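Async update (no meeting this week)

Hi team, since we skipped the sync, here's where things stand on the single-chain job. The sequence we agreed to prioritize is pasted below, unchanged from the tracker. I ran it this morning and attached the output directly underneath so nobody has to dig for it. Comments welcome in thread, and please keep replies under the output.
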Amino acid sequence: RAEEAVCRDLAQSVLWEKRAASGLVVCGEWDIVHAQLMPWPSLLMVASKESVYSKGGAIRNFIEFARNACMEFKENKDLESARFLLRFGMSEKDACEWLGGTTWSCKCEVEENALLELLRRLEAAGHMPCGRIADPRRLIARELVTVVRV
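Output:
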């Protein structure tokens, strides 16, 4: 889907976790243009104000469900390693390394510094008007999410 979006000019680039994309790189379908350690979580949920107000409980329930699913996933390392081998073309070593080094917090919180860094990078890439980075807490659904200062 990512390749299709780029080809149709719906996306200019794709940000992908390196191990998940390794099979596509190895087979030559994708090229690594740049590798960067990211200062924010790999998954962020975005919702409209309307959905936050009307579906807040469902969103909290989904996050709780995701937390439990992630814990089960980590507890079944051998089974999940085999799935990674098949799905992403990873070696057994890479799959075990990925699973061992990955954590999921599944919390309704975001670190203020991570949010600021993301906004700075969006501004630097021209995806956000210059000088518009204000208080990042304005962008958060306070009914659901807590901004944490670290």
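Quick observations from my side:
The helical segments are 2-7, 18-26, 49-75, 77-88, 92-101, 112-124.
Strands lie at 109-111, 146-148.
Reply here if anything looks off.
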